[in-house]
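Extended Data, panel c. Modelled sequence:
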Amino acid sequence: MKAQIIEKNGKPEYAVIPYEEYLRMLDAMADKTDAQVIAEFHNGYTSGREVMIPAEIVRRELDGELPIKLWREHRGLTQQELADRAGISKPYLSQIETGRRQGTVDTLSAIARALDVSLDLLTD
């Protein structure tokens, strides 16, 4: 690469490079940044600090559906199976899934454990 150096007060102030070289440098910096972001996510994912949420769950939650039901269905569980795993009654789970009841922190934590997700994925 051939750069033109422009001085100010006897010291190098600017380097002028061909435009194509400038574009290659931008691409290289973007690639490096992308690689860093991917590596950080991978490290977070493998250590359990990051999770991947299926697009279908995200879409349906954005459409207003409640996350406990979405995760239950994603895990292939019936209401009865999830209620049994969480140690609550099926009617109570149904009320939580539909938003008629909130559920205590202990109950929501038990549901989260039964679904193998973090509590923050199930609550606002």
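The longest helix spans residues 19-47. This feature is highlighted in the accompanying rendering.
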